[in-house]
Design a protein that fits this description.
InterPro entries: Leu-bd, Peptidase_C13, Peripla_BP_I. It is built from 20 helices and 27 strands. By secondary structure, it is an alpha/beta fold. The N terminus is likely disordered.
């Protein structure tokens, strides 16, 4: 072989090796040792021991079948029932052996630790954190997953269940907690979709509050009372006994009641007291106390499904009994192991991308819940395929954007002749109904004046954010982003009046001092802004002075518009039931009637020719219905009985940066053709806002005019 031939052959071999290393995944591990998966859960006591048993069952079945590519799965356990959550989370996040962690237990805990793992590019899989906020914060990132159902999806099911049983009017009573708030937020949303009327909503903090709340809610005789309780049998009994005393025809609907098959309410101490009783020998978990109260016939219930018989037989019943989350914990380890199989085969993939690639593909083969099935699944994953595990809770298939299961795991039941019987509801993957917007796709001009004859006049804007403190970061970011958009359209500062408390840039929690963001990684929105009013002066009086063109002695700017002007009023803050708009820490309010009166006076004072009011607040649809002034259009983030929802979550700052409605509004304005009408803009926003039903109202005003007219355009 000549020297030149040697060089050519060597180069060819190097190119071939490079091709193989890039195009063919490395199935063989660099080491033959265990594959480590972290666990951040309670693992002892009445709450934790059943979860530990489920982990061991899943681990043993995986390893007895041969592990992952011949490597056993080993768990690095951190028991949060006996130690500090944050310290344990830091330990697991820093451990280079760990790419996937199962846990944590609650939604609040997940938000507390998420950033530690995201920074290290590690995947969290929670078996029990069920808040819808988790989906809104982390869907699409690949960083957070869960095998438990999203409570937001569960609310859809229970409203379907009520409708299936003839319910048309419902009242809602929820525990005042993070858990209860999810139902408080989402039940009104789905009630709109299913044409069910919410006759009243209340929250309670203690058992003593229940009787009075039930009495008030049932005065209007709703068909059903949805009761979201803390888990206490005594709370359920209180609701039932109050309904009996009232001789009410209202039928209760219970979410996850603890009952036996005859509908008798079960009572057990909370986890801490139960542990003490067990240790003392005074309590036997198999002799659970039964309250004398029995759930009445016709009652509807949503509960966890009965365990799969095969899983129930395999699962070791501990002295603490079964746990609602044992099947989800078992499945979480299957999901984690599948992600690890992909990571070991495709080392160039991040754990998040590995999770997205195997968990969201619905075209793969279903793998049975057996040792052989697990091994076949791991082998296929390492070969680049996307099989679907069948776990203890069914197929482990996730939505295309990740985080949540495609179908929630639940059971719906009713009481009949003294027994609980199954009353199935087929889950529907619903999207928002277009007809709820109240606007037809093709509509004629609603104005009595032809559009081409309207004098646009000059343009003015009032932008206000009335909440303060770090937890309300998003309201100020919303207002600043609207300000930035108007500036980008060429509106000068002397035609924009900006009222903002402005405490976010200097808040101690702000790790980016002086800066405010509307979306993670996007352009900063505070530094170029020139607020006209900041701090304590951002109040109800200042807003009305600005809108009434009332100049004070300090000469601060107010509207200088006239009867030919186009005016935009954009306000972001908290709203409460009844539609009141809040200032500060609820130190002041503007009621819907007051707001309507303000707009009427603006018309009398010839402040505008036409005006668009945009409200980013909960229950803001009430204000829209209250304003009947000619020439005024009101667009709101939510319907009368709905909350609006936060959108972009920044785990590094541990706060929400924006609200969903405003995010969608700004995005549509930036990306729409200049000819898009206000009607078309609203319809696009309505359909794409996932978590509420934005509203629009107009009185002798046209929606079929260019939307840009109200946002600084010509």
């Amino acid at each position: 072989m000549t020297y030149i031939q040697f060089i050519i052959k060597t180069v060819f071999l190097l190119i071939l090796c490079s091709f193989i290393s890039v195009c063919i995944p490395c199935v063989l591990s660099e080491e033959d040792g265990p594959l480590y998966i972290g666990v951040l859960l309670p693992l002892n006591g009445p709450e934790g021991q059943p979860l530990y048993n489920a982990l061991l069952l899943s681990q043993n079945q995986i390893n007895e079948g041969g592990g992952i590519g011949g490597r056993p799965v080993q768990l690095i356990l951190r028991d949060t029932s006996t130690g500090d959550l944050m310290k344990y989370a830091e330990d697991l996040a820093k451990d280079p052996r760990i790419k996937v962690v199962i846990g944590p237990y609650s939604s609040d805990d997940l938000f507390a630790v998420a950033d530690l793992f995201i920074k290290k590019q590690k995947v969290l899989i929670s078996p029990s954190a069920s808040s819808d906020e988790i989906y809104r914060a982390f869907a699409g990132t690949g960083s957070v997953w869960r095998t438990v159902s999203n409570d937001g999806d569960i609310t859809s099911v229970l409203l379907q269940h009520i409708k299936q049983n003839g319910g048309k009017n419902v009242a809602l009573l929820t525990i005042n907690s993070t858990y209860g708030n999810t139902f408080y937020d989402w039940i009104p949303y789905w009630a709109i979709e299913y044409n069910i009327t919410i006759t009243g909503e209340e929250k309670y903090s203690t058992q003593n509050d229940i009787a009075g709340a039930v009495d008030r809610l049932c005065k209007v005789r709703p068909d059903y009372l949805i009761f979201v309780h803390s888990g206490s049998g005594n709370e359920i009994r209180s609701a039932i006994e109050t309904l009996k005393e009232l001789n009410s025809s209202t039928i209760p609907y219970f979410i996850y009641p603890t009952v036996d098959k005859q509908g008798q309410i079960l009572l057990r101490p909370d986890a801490q007291d139960q542990q003490k009783l067990l240790e003392s020998g005074l309590w036997n978990i198999h002799n659970i106390s039964v309250l004398s109260t029995i759930i009445p016939d016709k009652t509807l219930m949503l509960m966890s499904k009965e365990w799969d018989p095969g899983f129930s037989k395999e699962y070791t019943i501990s002295k603490y009994g079964q746990s609602d989350y044992a099947p989800e914990v078992y499945d979480a380890l299957l999901v984690a192991s599948g992600v690890m199989a992909r990571i070991t085969a495709y080392r160039q993939k991040s754990p998040m991308n590995a999770a997205l690639s195997i968990l969201t593909n619905e075209s793969g083969d279903l793998m049975p819940r057996t040792e052989e099935g697990f091994q076949s699944a791991f082998n296929q994953i390492q070969q680049g395929l996307t099989p679907v595990f069948i776990g203890a809770t069914g197929p482990l298939l996730f939505k295309s954007e990740g985080t949540d299961r495609r179908e929630p795991w639940y059971g719906t039941y009713r009481m009949e002749d003294g027994k609980i019987i199954s009353d199935p509801v087929l889950h529907q993957n619903l999207t928002k109904s277009d007809n709820k917007s109240g606007l037809a796709d093709n509509s004629t001009d609603l104005s009595t004046v032809p559009v081409q004859n309207i004098s646009h006049g000059d343009f003015w804007a009032v932008i206000g954010a009335f909440s303060r403190e770090w937890t309300n970061y998003r309201h100020q970011a919303d207002a600043l982003t609207m300000y930035e958009y108007l500036k980008s359209q060429g509106v000068s500062d002397d035609h924009i009046i900006l009222l903002i408390y402005d405490d976010i840039p200097t808040d101690k929690k702000n790790t980016r001092p002086g800066e405010v963001y509307h979306k993670p990684g996007e352009e900063e929105v505070r530094k170029r802004a020139i607020p006209d009013y900041i701090g304590e002066i951002v109040d109800k009086k200042t807003l009305t002075d600005v809108l009434f063109k009332k100049v004070e002695s300090d000469g601060r700017p107010v509207l200088q518009s006239d009867e030919n002007s186009t005016v935009l009023v954009y306000l972001s803050s908290h709203g409460v039931q009844g539609g009141d708009l809040l200032f500060g820490n609820d130190s002041e309010r503007i009621t819907p009637d007051e707001f309507a009166s303000i707009v009427d006076k603006m018309k009398e004072k010839k402040v505008f020719g036409r005006m668009l009011i945009v409200l980013e607040s909960c229950f803001s649809g009430v204000i829209a219905d209250s304003i009947t002034t000619p020439g005024v259009i009101v667009m709101t983030a939510s319907a009368q009985n709905e909350t609006s929802k936060a959108a972009s979550y920044d785990s590094a700052l541990s706060t929400w940066l924006s609200d969903e409605f405003t995010t969608e509004l700004i995005s549509r304005l930036k990306n729409s053709d200049s000819s898009v009408t206000l009607r078309q803009l609203y319809q696009q926003i309505f359909y794409h806002v996932r978590s509420s039903h934005p509203t629009i109202s107009m009185h002798n005003a046209s929606l079929d005019i260019t939307a840009g007219l109200f946002f600084g355009g010509a």
